[in-house]
Amino acid sequence: MKGAGGALSRAFGGGTARRGFDPWILVLVGAWAIVALLLIWPLWSVLMASFRDNDTGALSLTNYIDVFTLRSYRRAIGNTLLAGLGGMAGALVLGVTLALVTTRFRIRGRVLIQILAVVALVSPPFIGAYAWIVLFGANGVVRQGLASVGIDIPTIYGATGVILVFAFKFFPHVFLITSGALGAVNRSVEEAAEGLGLSPLRRLFKVTFPLILPSITAAALLTFVLSIADFGTPRLIGRDFNVLATEAFMLFGTEMGGNPGMASALSMVLIGLSMALVLLQRRVTRRDVYAGNLMRKPFVREATGWRGVALHVVAYAIVLVGALPAITAVIFSFRRTSGPVFQPGVSLQSYERVISTVSTPVWNTLVYSSASVFAIVVAGTLIGYLVSRRPQPATAALDGMLMVPYVVPGIVMGIAIITRFNGPPLELTGTGLVIVMAVFIRRLPYSARSAAAALKQLSPSLEEAAISLGYSPARAFLRVTVPLIGPGILAGALMSLVTAMNELSSSLVLYVGSTVTMPVRIYLAVLDGEYGLASALSSILLVLTVAAVAGAFLLSGRKQSSLL
Amino acid sequence: MSRLDIRTIEKSFGDVRVLKGVDLTVESGEFFTLLGPSGCGKTTLLRIIAGFQRQDAGEIVVDGDRIDARPAHKRDIGMVFQDYAVFPHLTVAENIAFGLRARRMGDADVRARVDEGLRMVRLEGLGQRLPSELSGGQQQRVGLARAMAIRPKLLLMDEPLSNLDAKLRVDLREDIRDIQKRLGITTIYVTHDQEEALAISDRICVMDRGVVEQVGTPFEVYRAPRRRFAAAFVGTMNFVAADSDGGRVRIGPLTLPVAAPARDGFQLAIRPENVVVGAPTDGDARGAIRLEGAVRKITFLGREAHYTLSTPVGEIVAQVADPTRELLDVEGRTIAIALPYDKVVLFTAEGDATPFGAAT
Predict the structure, then answer these.
(1) pLDDT over threshold 80, residue B98
(2) Interface pTM (ipTM) of the complex?
(3) Are residues A301 and A375 both part of a single domain?
(4) Which of A16, A465, A469 minimises the CB distance to B71?
(5) Do A135 and A228 reside in the same domain of the chain?
């Protein structure tokens, strides 16, 4: 981020008067410097570490041989795939169902459904896991309630629980992506299919789904990558359901007997799995670009009678269960506690505890996330401009490099950064800066992509018009382009703020006592059984998150799917 | 009022030479059109003049000053864009004032110039509107007023009418012409529409594959094409393949009493409106090529009709102004036509026009 800032001031300081000199070259150099320092170098270190024998320090394949031969690692790989595919399948079923119901039928309270879906989406990631424990854990409220009337249900712990949590946590992504696509399917095409004698159900599978396949596969990929990268959920309710992310963290985290080489090898396998899915998705969707210039909006049916009731129940059940963790956290934050045990009655004591003894994480979160978002927005906008307006091999390669963070789980990014900056030449461990750096590089691609997309909507001749009227290229950019993409950038910034505030996995690797953030503190509180404190912190985080999301939606005129 | 000299401009993109040593002179106050098919290099040349692209070699000179070393924003060249490029976040008035602000003009002067601009493009009263509240034609008027407001030395227009529908296109075309004449700003206009070029220009430069094919007034380019490409691109033209028969021009079965050029592979050309349809009862038989043609198709367009004829020398299209009822009934029949010598142009194998006339 420093590089881009410096390049910016240099670019704007002069250079435009010189002939044939493009100030954006400096931005390009700065961007590559960032990518090299925060992405290539740390990941290269992890890659190297994965080939290093932990005992002798020699180059070897021992770690990889262990990964694929030792039973517990093989189990972790299997579990990771199971959790990833299970979470993906669950999220797809829930998300596509909800999208179909809400786009093709007149459902009452569509706005409420969308809000609940967004609440589920932006809830701090492990609130889900924790709230499910409160409800369905060994002493869970729902479980005990059912037990008192003689119904015995299994606990949420284990593979089933992890997959269920993933499905209800990630379905909003699928919902938002496929709703957009379903809304853009030409009605005439579907009517033509029915005219040719297909029943509505067959038409759905033969025509509608193939048409929105690119969106479905993109959503599937996203939910798979999110599921296998998730650390909090399997850690909190997986019990003995170990996955690669938790294994890598444990191997790396244990001060004594830690095995960084092994942790690195597991990280590489995790990245490899994500990459494999990305390539698979590309193969599936390569030729599926359907464009029609004649457009009739899909027909929205009235939902009446028994069918109407059923459709409403399905839609509301999905979003309510999805938003349940967030709702639970808020309710529990106001319950009276005695130590870790909840007592009857209402109280603000959890919040009092936050204010009196654990306010550091709140401030840390605000400071780190604002700092990283500021850097993300500046660098992301400049890089987005480069990618969309200066097409050349160096920017195309930059764009390609920025795909990498999409497939690098937070845990791995954390491990990579700590491996690289743990000692000379750059020792930054224990500072807030490493936490900011990790969030920055993880979220920069999203910001760059959305800036590039916004710029693609903007004709290059607008800037040329300003230049021909006497403005230097830098002033034309500031006077014309920035005001036009400004609202989009700001909306993107608020969404980055949401993810930055909720970042758990990389911060967990990088924090020390004084740099603890809210998500980390909540995670620790849940591990310690301090549910009251966890609920209060979660609620504060949730309020901040919802405020940021609401701001983003106001700015972008409610085009949610373009934000998330 | 500025004179523009373009000297041996070269430009390549990769291996493709898009401009092959273009030389042009545009007189002060002239309305000069670059006309050609897409990919002929006309837009590239315009962008080089504007400073958005750099030539590989050659000079751009305005009133004796070389400007090609200056960055685009210091060239004092107004530009009107195909997609209007009206700033959507600024009102119409702010758009027109945009370039004046860069020149640090005082508020009162800016206001006067904006009002004048609005009047000029007939958008009085719309100054406070946002571009999204305007039609495409109105937006392009804003683009024109904005470029004119800075009183540039040169005005460049890159297919400004091609996104408008036919009726608006003609209206705005007339307005552009009137405003340009009134202010006398030297204007370079790019289009691929030959009718537009004929209607609006003082002079037309026909380009093809990075080469200037012909420069001339609309009349010269249409009536006296000097290059085969210009003849084919501007208006419609019948081409008849010909060869030499003992020094005489031969077309199909006919040998004409006309001297043939030295090299074979030449062509005769005639505009459809110059083909005489029906058997001419008088006139000198030696003054025209007489042919019989089977009428394959008649297209009636109201004020004229187009006849597609199969003749012994190939297909010929003839245009008849104000056709009579009887003439529209001849489809499928064979009729007589005549190609008057003084309307026929001969193009050599190299594509150059040469004089055509009865051998003496």
Answers:
(1) yes
(2) 0.84
(3) no
(4) A16
(5) yes
